[in-house]
């Protein structure tokens, strides 16, 4: 590569390589260095925009993920289980899970029986690994299973398990010569296991009798039964999801004659926590904008996005949404009226006492304020962060294109300087040869003159 070989004149004693490098470095300083500085500035801006974009996207995603732009996002409830009998631990009897479809209410619950899965067995077989010589089909919970003459008790169990019929088959070995195939339903309920004996295989094994009835019942399938506010409800499972709207009951034990009280109330603390987390996300944005627009003093380098119009617009959008009025509300008409206010340092804060009082006084209006706040913020943030049409996305794309263009120009200049180095090396090499030739001629002429002088004397 040009410039790697040191070119020092043997005759002139001039370091042509250093001379060439000094010349080209001077040209690079006036052409490439400004471009590299410009590229560094653009890279700093790009990084700053990406950080800003990340903060806006985080706020938008938090609102979407927690449905803070919808009423359902604030349907958060808590429950309390109590019993008048101090010997009963309510949580040992019933498990509770609440969804956003729940509502405030009080219920009396008594579990009178639990659902159980059916389990049956075959007659005793002398071996679990000897071919049974049975062939045909059996149907377990609508899943048809082919049985072949070489199948053993063990392989039949494996085939049933592989059929995904909702039944678990296993072998119970009472002794070396007494083995039983057991079938247990994977779901509770009185319906139990459905069996169809296509080739008398189940009868031969003693799972069904001559009337196609289950023969060896270990555990009968049973539905659960419970009373809620005096009404009897039957369930094929110990998980009861449809009795109380938005409430899933998990039945664990019976408490006949000792009803448990279930109280469902709004979880204002959890709602406040959601709003506080949104406020924290907003403050991260406001703090970033403030940092970018803070002048550190004489001699310091200004922030990459100082005075940027996009940062100013986002801050204005946040300010506007806090003070905008909600149509249809009469008491709580703005976010500030429910406890969301700006502090002296420019950050947003939530007065939890004001918020809780407002939520208790007029839940509907408070939720109207919050959903409008969430929806407006999400919409405004999307204007900037949308990966296809977002303002910041377009700005970042433009900066990347500019950086690519600068890189291309730098590469072009470097290639040109490489060519110039080759040309200069050739030129100065020729000059060195010319100097050498001139010195030879000078020496020859000097010798001739000296010779002529000696001859004349």
Question: TL;DR?
Answer:
It contains 9 helices and 17 strands.
**Fraction of residues in helix:** 40-55%
Tell me the Rg in angstroms.
Answer: 43 Å
Tell me the overall shape.
Answer: flat
Largest sheet: spatial strand order: 1-15-3-11-12
Strand content: 15-25%
Q: Segments where pLDDT lies below 50 for 5+ residues?
A: 1-7
Mean pLDDT score: 90
Order of helices and strands: HEHEEEEEHEEEHEEEEEEHHEEHHH
By DSSP, the count of extended strands is 17
- How far from one another are the termini? 58 Å
How many helix segments? 9
Largest sheet: 5 strands, antiparallel
Class based on secondary structure composition and strand pairing: alpha+beta
Oligomer: single chain
Describe the structure.
By secondary structure, this protein is α+β, with helices and mostly antiparallel strands. Among the domains are: 77-115 and 224-266, no CATH class; 119-219. Helix content is 46%, strand content 20%. The strands form five sheets. The protein has a five-stranded antiparallel sheet with strand order 1-15-3-11-12. A hairpin with a 2-residue loop joins strand 11 and strand 12 (231-235). The chain is flat and about 150 Å long. The model is unreliable at 1-7 (pLDDT under 50).
């Amino acid at each position: 590569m040009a410039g790697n070989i040191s070119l020092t004149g043997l005759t002139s004693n001039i370091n042509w390589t250093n001379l060439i490098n000094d010349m080209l470095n001077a040209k690079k300083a006036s052409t490439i260095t400004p471009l590299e500085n410009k590229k560094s500035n653009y890279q700093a801006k790009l990084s700053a925009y990406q950080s800003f974009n990340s903060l806006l996207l985080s706020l938008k995603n938090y609102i979407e993920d927690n449905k803070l732009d919808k009423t359902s996002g604030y349907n958060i409830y808590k429950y309390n289980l109590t019993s008048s009998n101090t010997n009963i631990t309510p949580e040992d009897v019933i498990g509770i899970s609440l969804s956003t479809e729940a509502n405030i209410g009080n219920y009396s619950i008594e579990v009178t029986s639990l659902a159980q899965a059916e389990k049956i067995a075959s007659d005793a077989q002398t071996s679990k690994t000897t071919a049974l010589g049975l062939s045909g089909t059996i149907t377990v919970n609508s899943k048809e299973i082919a049985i072949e003459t070489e199948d053993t008790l063990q392989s039949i169990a494996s085939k049933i398990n592989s059929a995904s019929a909702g039944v678990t088959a296993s072998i119970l070995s009472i002794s070396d010569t007494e083995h039983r195939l057991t079938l247990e339903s994977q779901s509770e309920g009185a319906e139990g296991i459905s069996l169809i004996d296509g080739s008398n295989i189940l009868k031969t094994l003693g799972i069904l009798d001559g009337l196609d009835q289950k023969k060896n019942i270990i555990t009968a399938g049973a539905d659960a039964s419970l009373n809620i506010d005096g009404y009897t409800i039957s369930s094929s499972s110990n998980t009861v999801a449809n009795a109380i709207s938005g409430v899933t009951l998990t039945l664990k034990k019976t408490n006949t004659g000792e009803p448990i009280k279930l109280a469902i109330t709004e979880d204002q603390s959890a709602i406040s926590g959601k709003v506080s987390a949104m406020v924290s996300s907003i403050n991260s944005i406001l703090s970033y904008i403030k940092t970018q627009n803070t002048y550190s003093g004489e001699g310091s380098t200004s922030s990459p996005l100082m005075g940027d119009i996009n940062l100013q617009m986002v801050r204005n959008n946040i300010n506007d949404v806090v003070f905008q009025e909600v149509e249809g509300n009469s008491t709580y008409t703005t976010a500030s009226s429910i406890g969301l206010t700006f502090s002296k340092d420019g950050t947003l804060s939530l007065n939890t006492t004001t918020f809780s009082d407002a939520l208790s006084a007029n839940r509907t209006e408070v939720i109207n304020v919050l959903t409008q706040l969430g929806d407006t913020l999400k919409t405004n943030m999307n204007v900037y962060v949308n990966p296809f049409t977002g303002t910041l996305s377009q700005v970042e794309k433009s900066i990347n294109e500019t950086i690519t263009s600068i890189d291309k120009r730098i590469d072009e200049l470097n290639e040109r300087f490489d060519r110039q180095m080759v040309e200069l090396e050739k030129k100065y090499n020729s000059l060195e040869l010319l100097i050498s030739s001139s010195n030879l001629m000078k020496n020859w002429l000097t010798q001739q003159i000296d010779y002529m002088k000696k001859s004349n004397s």
